[in-house]
Write a structure and sequence with these properties.
homotetramer; Aspartate Aminotransferase, domain 1; 3-stranded antiparallel β-sheet; Aspartate Aminotransferase, domain 2; globular; 13 helices
């Protein structure tokens, strides 16, 4: 049983149905009937007027957001273990034309206002040093931790005071919302977020994420950047349709809740082995190499996360039946 | 009836079936069972060992190819009306980090060896001028003209002599092959082509093209560039599966042949109105504004192509029944 | 005697004296006493508040200006024979991160409002095509032609209407002003120019040009871009001092006038051989290969300018005595 | 008395004399008599065939070197406090088109082989992470520490084993050589260095550094990159002449020795206040805010280097007479 990545999971049947339903003649690029519904659908969801673009990958969505918020000569404050820094092969640098990631620390890959202030304070305000222009956080974080609306708002305050654009990498935004039970609006623009990469692929989608601009004027240049990066699909309706399917009847929230439940089940079984509180669909365990080997011998697959640790990710389609054997195996270690 | 773009057409049912079949757990990115078959499948098709990457859009495939062939300070010789110059919003400049497109002319958007030589001859070999490093042609061209294997080889000769990487934009490669009845190998690497953007989306695919490197060593850096451009999909099997479905039983060739047949039918009806010989699935007609209006009044949709001209594109799914009414309407003008 | 480039000439003695005078301890970069005088000096000269930066080369000044006026995904309208297009090895593409030069034509390397409008009109206002965002002209042009204040203003009108930033490459701005006898203000911002590369090197300087922003707010980002491009010299006072020396007592104008006079002398001698009216310090002659050889045999050096043509450039330090023999040799051909 | 930067110092009289001597007609750019001597002069100095380019600033020299050694999608290992990371406003990112600086630590801003290995070991060899492609060290370091030939060679070993290009930022290379008494060859290519930014400006030059390629083939692309960055000066002879003047009769070494002697004098006076051993022309002192104020009240100017520390830099033109009062003031604190 695979627990190494929610990217490995299948797409939800509703997504495939949506593709089939969209499989007819329509206008190319984003002039079709599905793409035109996105702004409305997301504006409803976020209770404010937003501009939204379908983007095929989270990496592209994140990088396009950063390019909209930070000039080539600026810096983006983020956590040292942020996906944009560690796992995107320099995509932010590519899309921003060489902006610098200004790395900070914090437990569970979370940034605090103080940490952001410390980065700013350490930079001389002269032309010799890259000046911070944007702040990027991941919610839920790379360690499955959720920023609360209050925590987001506190960072939004710093961003505003320092003149930083504020981006949220929401590859697992759904899991954060599901965990917190808050409104998407409270977790984003009400706390000062300017742009959100809203992930669907890890959550039952196939290849469509959404980039949401809460300051609609930021979208304009991004339309050109998206095209220029080869991300304006000629049959864009197949991306829009996926997203609409995920939004319909809160499928995105249901899927995330299911994955979170699975993770909670494992967390319960793991007890003192937990490295981080489980607030999304990821579980980080202390396990010896021997223990890890025993779990694998039982057919469970997962990532080693440095020596003595393992990462297990639960997907939308892994229900209690799927999780239970692993939970028991962990408890039995 | 829409004749304005083959991008508007539906995806072939086999492509959707392939998506459904691929909709199960597998390794993320391009480590899955489908992606791993691509090199073999394309090596068979091209009768030589190739490296192949799935890429979601033709714009990205073209630009990644050019980035592999041309340094940031180099130039890419192409036709003034090439898609890479006119319709990709500067994507080649983005991916190559500012290489310059060196524009040339030629009937039907075709470049001749003499035209390429003329571009080279007009550039002083000093550091003040951008030196040509690559040659890019489109086959079939933006005007639906096909380069023959001999014509490709003649350009390949120039490229070799001048030290130029040689790229073929094959958004409608299938239509060219179908028209010429030649082997894919003869139309590409045997004529000196280094990299081919092999299009599937206009030909019944959904969102997967292939970038083929006939010099396998060129692929290495491109793997990083693809990731960095946000084009490494986490569920890459859904792209690979589309391509494999298109390759199976020569579906790519059947679809292109069907579209070509439709175009030939229109060409016959158009007679002296033809602006370009019809060698693929595009038909360019001389029509007055009044005539264009009359066709539209009958329900036919297409692009105006400057004053007095119209472009009609036939898709893989438009059979004789679909084409016949338009052919008759054109003949009756 | 060398007539092939005003770049080959010596620096004016006043410039060397200024270097010597500046050769003492001061603050590094542009915090020194000389650099701080630039804004005032240029604001006086241009009769309006400007921001000015010393830049060592015209290529860098031009490219920094374009980067200030045009986003990476935009286009810069310029003449097909503009220095920025032909002779800077893609520097504008480098500094702007891949903006496209949109080439137009016009006699004597001059753009007309109609030509600019035609470029704009030929571009579909959609994301597939690079949208024009800036206009760049050279004054005096690459063929030694001067735009008058009225001509500049007419282009400024178009730029304003089309939302284009307006840049003037003034590598030979001094020669244009000397020829026209107008005020620097009339030839620039009063006609809508936003940024001027004010050349000194071809006119008796050593290695200092000025980049003038008539919209002071444009300078801010350029300070970072200058540093980032390695163009913020640590001993910047040696650049500022050169410029101040050139501005003092209108040395810049005197030098240009001297060079223009020399060119006028040659023009007179050349008569019907002139390819372009002589309005600056460049003379383009119709000469056969044999005639060119005869001139060279007499010790005159110059550029061939394609078959049957020669370019002669007069420098600030070539007085009548230096010119006369060439004028006679031309007359005697 | 200013001790805050060797950039603030005057240029050596021999440099000004060289400028005066070069102030006559010659070929533009780097086709002149002075520029042509550089390769020979540096090949002599380094006892091997090198290619050398004049570059006006250290920032540009460093960045051009890195662009020659590292692709846009690669990483450059350097010290966290390296000038290229901290004080060049993202110039390396600009010139390399977005390569990432991979930061490491080490006492006195020195990298050890183990530290470099640790960076490499921490990076998964897949396309999701930026792969190290180059190593850059500063000699003497930002804290005035000198790498010995053995230390350089040990790093060169790692670079070779890991396939990393090896760059040395030699803004104060002269000071390191003067301190070590070794040959320039031993400190560079014999230890595996591929490219050296050889600084002259901090050492008595005006605005000319040299970029030395010990693998001559690396120079070719850099010639284009230099032009494209606006760093090919039209009157390049004024840069070449400065460098030749500095090389003549080992002026570069004499100047550096003089500055080092001054620093040694201060070091002696400072005793236990020294934060770093003094191996070049920089002295880092522990001083309280009050002590710093007292020194400043006596007319000595310098940088605060965080709380409780001061940086003093001695220039080539500060002889014992100039230094003695400061040494005494420090001793008297």
């Amino acid at each position: 049983m695979r627990f190494f990545s929610d990217n490995a999971a299948a797409a939800h049947p509703a997504v495939l149905e949506a593709l089939a339903a969209a499989n007819r003649l329509d206008t190319a690029y984003d002039g079709d009937a599905w793409s035109k519904q996105l702004d409305g659908a997301f504006s409803d969801l976020f209770e404010t007027k937003v501009r939204s673009l379908w983007i095929a990958t989270g990496t592209a969505a994140n990088s396009l957001a950063l390019a909209a918020l930070c000039p080539p000569f600026g810096g983006v404050i983020c956590h040292r273990e942020a996906h944009i820094s560690v796992d995107e092969c320099g995509a932010p640098e590519f899309f921003t034309h060489g902006a610098k990631l200004l790395l900070s620390d914090g437990e569970g890959a979370k940034l605090s206002p103080a940490a952001v202030e410390a980065v700013c304070a350490g930079i001389r305000p002269d032309v010799h040093q890259v000046q911070p222009r944007a702040l990027s956080i991941t919610n839920a974080t790379e360690y499955g931790r959720a920023y609360t609306p209050d925590e987001v708002a506190a960072l939004g305050e710093v961003a505003k005071r320092r003149g930083l654009g504020f981006h949220m990498d929401g590859a697992r935004f759904a899991n954060a919302v599901a965990h917190l039970g808050c409104s998407p609006a409270d977790l984003t623009w009400r706390g000062g977020v300017d742009a959100l990469s809203f992930g669907f692929v890890k959550n039952g989608g196939m290849n469509a994420e959404a980039l949401i601009f809460f300051k609609p004027e930021l979208a304009e240049a991004t339309l050109y950047r998206r095209k220029r990066a080869g991300h304006l699909f000629s049959k864009g309706r197949f991306l829009a349709a996926q997203i609409l399917a995920m939004l319909k009847d809160e499928l995105w929230l249901d899927n995330a809740s299911a994955a979170n439940r699975g993770a909670a089940l494992l967390a319960q079984a793991a007890g003192g082995r937990l490295i981080h509180p489980v607030e999304a669909n990821e579980v980080f365990l202390r396990v010896t190499a021997d223990e890890a080997a025993r779990l694998r011998a039982l057919g469970f697959d997962f990532y080693d996360w440095g020596p003595g640790a393992a990462r297990l990710v639960i997907s939308w389609d892994q229900d209690e039946t799927a999780i239970r054997p692993l939970a028991e195996a962990i408890a039995a270690l």
